[in-house]
Every structure is written in C-alpha cells, then in structure tokens.
C-alpha cells in the first residue's frame, strides 16, 4: 500500500487537466486542518503500519507555511530513518527518506535546506520548457512563461545543491504532438545534462470534455508519441514511466506503478491519501464528480474487488473489452481513473496508444534477445497466475528460462562451427 500526505488540495497553478481539478472545484479546502496545523496528519501516519514515508503531495504542498512543512518533514524523517535502520542496519549517505511532489514554482533556499536536512527526493511537475509548459496556464502568456522559467531555475538550483530530483510531465497538445516532440526531446536531454534521468511522461487524463480540443492530443498522435519516444528514451539512457514500466513487466520483474495492478476504484491500494485532518481517502483519480471517498486507515485486503478486471477480460476487444488482448498481463485494462467516458467499469481511454507502446517495446526486446519468452507469450499459466508472478517479481524466471535451458543443454561445451 502506498500513502501520500495531502497537506492541501489547493494549488497556486490550478492546472485544468489536474486529476484533482473536479474535487478542488467542489471544495479546495477539503481535509485541511484549521490554521494549516499538521499534528493530526502526523498522528495518522504514526497510527498506520507503513514501510515508507508518505509522499508530501497536494494540490501544492509548498503552499503551507514553512514551519508546518518542516514539522512534517522532520517527524517523517525521524520515524522512517529509524525504520530503514531497523530493516537494513544502516542509512546510506545518499539514501532518501522523505519525498515531495511539487510544481516547483514556490521553492526557495529555505525549502532546499529542508530537503537536504531531511533527505527529501523532489518530484517536479512540469511539461517542458517555454511553450511546452503552456498547459499549466497562469492567466496570460507572459505570466505562464515567467513561471515556467522560474521552475526551470529552481530545478537547476536543486541539482546544483545535490537534491535528488525527478520530473513528471503530462503529455498534452503543448508538448506531445508531432510538431512539439522534437522540443520535448530537447527538454529531456537538457534535464539529463543537469543529472535528471528519470520520471514520468503521463498521458493526459482530462475530466472536462469541453477542454479536449484545447489540450488532448488525438489518438493517432498519442500512438505516434509512444512509438517515437520509446526508442529515443532507450537510446539516451532515460528511465521514464510508462516506458520503463513496460520493460519491467514484459521481463517479469514486477509492476512498477499502480496503474497496471488491477486497482479497485473504491479501495485504491496504489494510492491512499492522508489529509491534513488525519482522514484517509481513496485515490482522487477515480473521483469524477469531486467526491472524496474515505478509506480504511490500514486497508483491508478482503474488501478489495477485481470485478472490473474479470468482466473486461470476458468482453472481446471488438466490443469494448480486453478479451483476447495479447497484452493483458502487462496492462490489465490500466488505471480505472483513466477509463473511457470517466466510467471505471470501462477499459482505459488510452487502450490503442498503450497497445502500440507494448507492441513497439516487445518488438525491440525480441529483436535484441530472441530467446526471451516475454510475459506476453505462451506460458501455460492462467491470467491470475501470471498476474501474481509478475506482481511478486518471480515471472522473470519464466522469461529467461529458455536461455538457461539452452545454456545447460550445451553441458558447458561450445558448439563446433
Ligand atoms: S486509480 Fe489509478 S492512479 Fe489511483 S491508485 Fe488506482 S491505479 Fe493508481
Ligand atoms: S491494451 Fe487495451 S485491450 Fe489490451 S489490456 Fe490494455 S486496455 Fe485492455
């Protein structure tokens, strides 16, 4: 189970494609403790049995006064550095203990000092430099570009000071079209030059259909995006999801993110936000009408249902389901929050482009290593067995088995020419 600490869902940027936009419209102060106090949130984290510190999340977490941010980071640092030492016997010098996801626009030197002190990994939400980031609109072009330039400077400062930093970009009309891809590549290489090689390129998930023309890239361009970016990232040693996730699940090493793990929309184990008032909720990606569903604090595996997945698997692809799909084992209909028509019962609205990404990656690996038997190939396992094997990271034995068998068959003797 992965937890986040939602200090506030309010945000100074208010991007229209944010998955929390509808909930924010309904009540931007939901779950916030009066006076921005954080003691209830800290107590909730102490009460829950968790291995890793919850990611400080928002909205924009840096909207909170520095005193409160420092209180949360220092409490989390104390709690979770002890847990790391209990588990591993030591805390490595470059090991991160806490983490934050921020739009990066409010970061100053005091925040950077805190990140260094509490070993915080920083994720920055930005879609690229200059016009690539115009989807995060600040009212007019001048303000938007100025804000983007400030975020880039903050990213550079973080790296100069040695703060582990990564990028999450939302792929939309400003950065993901055929025309803009060359500039996006330029941005990713610019980030690589300052030492950032990982993050996420998340396809846009829009909850306001009236904004689709403005922000959403057409399916044909989504497909092109994945086909174009997969080899580029591979050739440049860049480790961005979903590309890297596809590689891991094809090779059987596990699912890296929650989106392919048969998430129950009402018991989202991949994301449990803890709000400022200490309440625990479900992932806001599945909230399409702004309702913030609450969840049990410590989860309850018996309550989790896989009905979306068992039903979609029985409906043929031609009729809107996933029946017969070759890539079921690595996709599992994808995130219910990105389902077609905002209805979690459907498969992902990105089915076609994801399929193209899986196909492109699969072909590349089979070409490199024809002896692999990828998790998408025949293994005489049921869907559930394969899901469990990938999920617990043991499917890699199956994938590489043919290579081991052939090595053993040679009995240590090399074949004669
Ligand atoms: S709804 Fe989607 S993003 Fe949220 S936990 Fe489930 S799979 Fe993850
Ligand atoms: S690629 Fe499409 S059909 Fe296949 S599992 Fe994913 S959503 Fe379903």
- State the total count of DSSP E strands: 8
Low-confidence stretches: none
Number of helices: 14
- State the order of secondary-structure elements, H for helix, E for strand: EHHEHEHEHEHEHHEHEHHHHH
Major sheet attributes: 5 strands, parallel
* First-to-last CA distance: 54 Å
CATH class of the domain at 3-217 and 262-300: Alpha Beta
**Lateral arrangement of strands in the main beta sheet:** 3-4-5-6-7
Tell me the strand percentage band: 5-15%
Q: Average the pLDDT over all residues and give the rounded result.
A: 93
In helices, the fraction of residues equals: 25-40%
What ligands are attached or bound here? iron/sulfur cluster
Name the CATH homologous superfamily of the domain at 3-217 and 262-300. Answer: Aldolase class I
CATH-defined fold name of the domain at 3-217 and 262-300: TIM Barrel
Radius of gyration: 22 Å
Explain briefly what this protein structure is.
With 417 residues, the protein is an alpha/beta fold.
Q: Keywords for this structure?
A:
three-stranded parallel sheet, binds iron/sulfur cluster, five-stranded parallel sheet, alpha/beta, 9% strand, TIM Barrel, 14 helices
